[in-house]
Write a structure and sequence with these properties.
8 helices, two-stranded antiparallel sheet, DNA-binding, six-stranded antiparallel β-sheet, binds manganese (II) ion, Arc Repressor Mutant, subunit A, about 220 residues, homodimer
DNA sequence: ATATATTTTTAGGATATCCTAAAAACGTTC
DNA sequence: GAACGTTTTTAGGATATCCTAAAAATATAT
């Protein structure tokens, strides 16, 4: 396994390759490499049985592939917690360094780090940290676009993208914030939230889809 | 710069390449790669002006090369402090992980880590941590083989080699220990130390050379 | 259904890193 | 200083990763 292959598997996973077939095109855009390089890497991962491949259609992770993706995500997210909590990184700064550290982290290192951080369950964006064995803890979040009007909900996880995180900072939307939905415009139109104090925030459909929430259960 | 090149420069440095010409043979042994690969890497580093090269003689670091070696050592040693102090690694466990982490450490990461660790001056083996600008703090240590009989001295630094560290553990020799020299056999023979409590320890000349000390000044 | 546009694959190269085996240079020993 | 042993370099390959350009397959639109 090389950093390259690991990043490729992670990209497939993040595009939904654990449950559906991902086109080369999507990987080309996501990884910013040539189409030829994607075809080539596909062949390599196929030989190692980490993906299945339907020619001219795309690739899907095998169970081994999914396990590797989860283990890599575990490393990535534990590092993010460390950078955020111990080294004082900002929300939107942690990703880049974690993306490098994840590939040079021995099992010993990750488990010691996990202990040192008191076994965190979520990364700084609310992403759940996979278990040591490569399984995923249960979560009950859903996209903000699926919220019903009236019921109060909490922000549980947001997309780990630097620009998007900056946008949320502008809008003053934070993990754990509590809102109710007051308006949804049709045809994937803007969504308006209201804080308990009555402040209103309007965001687009695409942005809302990058925010995962859960209903408040009291 | 790649991890490979960085390790090569570090190897040259550790063999004394900051002040003398290092033969290919030494690098072959140290890095466990073929002689052909050393010749090849020499050519690459020469082109980047990180080393000077005397054909059939060997290589020496330029000032740029030395600066890179020091900055890498800084990263390596700061990571070692972290692994040792915060993650509970043993003395002889820190090196392997630090050797990987050093190549994926942004300046931001290292400086934040340095702050988090309260700006340590030495790594867990007593190695001095180079300054941010690539310069070396002054130290006044010398090999145990050069100690005079009678004068008390302290263990300041030991060779960062797993087997050697295990040997020191067996002999119960630790950083900061205070001894006096009671016997030195001629022809690079064994050296005998005595603790303040009168316990005697005898070690060979080669091992003694891997231990740096300084006289106690009270 | 055919033309057009898009996507994927193949073909042919480039670079970094590694290797083994042979040739050349150097050092040592009598 | 010739012979032998050691070290370095050169020659020729291998693999991983990347690329561009052309060819093949698939999807879309009329
Ligand atoms: Mn991230
Ligand atoms: Mn990565
Ligand atoms: Mn070390
Ligand atoms: Mn290293």
């Amino acid at each position: 396994m090389t950093p390259n292959k690991e990043n490729f598997i992670k990209a497939i996973y993040e595009l939904g390759g654990d449950h559906s077939v991902i086109s080369n095109k999507k990987l080309v855009n996501n990884l910013s490499i040539s189409a030829a390089s994607v075809t080539e890497m596909n062949a390599r991962l196929l030989k190692e049985k980490l993906i299945s491949h339907v020619p001219y259609r795309g690739v899907k992770l095998t169970s081994s592939g999914i396990r590797i993706a989860h283990q890599l995500k575990r490393k990535h997210r534990i590092w993010e917690v460390f950078l955020f909590e111990k080294l004082g990184y900002d929300w939107n700064e942690v990703h880049a360094d974690a993306d490098l550290l994840e590939h040079v982290s021995s099992d010993l290192l990750i488990e010691r780090l996990n202990d040192f951080l008191d076994e965190p369950k979520f990364d700084p964006h609310g992403g759940v940290i996979p278990n040591k064995d490569g399984s995923l803890p249960e979560t009950s979040t859903f996209p903000l676009t699926d919220v019903g009007t009236g019921k109060p909900f909490k922000i549980k996880e947001v997309d780990d993208d630097k620009e998007f995180l900056n946008y949320l900072l502008e809008k003053d939307i934070q993990l754990g914030d509590r809102y109710t939905l007051t308006d949804v415009e049709p045809f994937d139109g803007p969504i308006t939230l209201e804080t308990p104090e009555g402040r209103q925030i309007t965001i687009g459909h695409k942005a809302a889809f990058k925010i995962l929430v859960d209903y408040v259960t009291e």
